[in-house]
Amino acid sequence: MSTARRPKTIQELAQLATTQTYDPSRELKDQLRAAEHLRKLGKESERAGDLENAFVNFARAATIILDKIPRHTEYHKLSHGQKDTLAGNGQDLLEKLERLKPRINDAHEHWLASGGEAAAARAEAEAAEREEEERRRQQEERQRQDRRRQAEEERSRQNDED
Question: Contact 57/39 with Cβ under 8 angstroms?
């Protein structure tokens, strides 16, 4: 039985990659630095065996290089050679993503095959049971406190009457 967290699917990782905020008002050199930083993070994640973060960072870098930068107001200032280099870097990132996809899919499939989905459902059900038990315990404690308070009030009233 696998208790490890569920590996994300390619679709989930692609969705995470799109949550990046992009500010088109930033200078082109800042956008290039951001893409390079994301590429380096992706490379470090891949080296560390964190394929999910590698995928997300490579996808974000590729989006900046292939989609955002060509629409930047300063893009026309780049030489043809710089544009070619940029396109090549973007293509390299796409190739890295394609190489990661089967490994990520394999991890998810392995998790499913090892009963990960059933284990996750059991863990979720057990957590819900624990929460319900805790709610019942708290409710019982409140009722005990209410009964004690009522008994004290009743004793206080009886003492006042005496």
Answer: yes
Q: What is the mean pLDDT of the chain?
A: 88
Q: Which residues contact 56 (CB under 8 A, 6 or more apart)?
A: 13, 16, 17, 42
* Cβ 7 vs Cβ 107: under 8 Å: yes
**Cβ–Cβ under 8 Å, residues 89 and 32:** no
Instruction: Write out the H or E segment, with its range, that includes residue 11.
Output: helix 10-17
CB contact burial 98-122 (16+ within 10 A = b; e otherwise): eebeeebeebbeebeeeebeebbee
Per-residue H/E/C for 49-116: CCHHHHHHHHHHHHHHHHHHHHHCCCHHHCCHHHHHHHHHHHHHHHHHHHHHHHHHHHHHHHHHHCCH
DSSP 21: -
Residues of the chain with pLDDT under 70: 1-4, 116-123, 162
First-to-last alpha carbon distance for the chain, in angstroms, is 68
How far is 31 from 21, CA to CA, in rounded Å?
Answer: 12
Rounded-to-integer distance, Cα 81 and Cα 105, Å = 36
* Global pTM value: 0.69
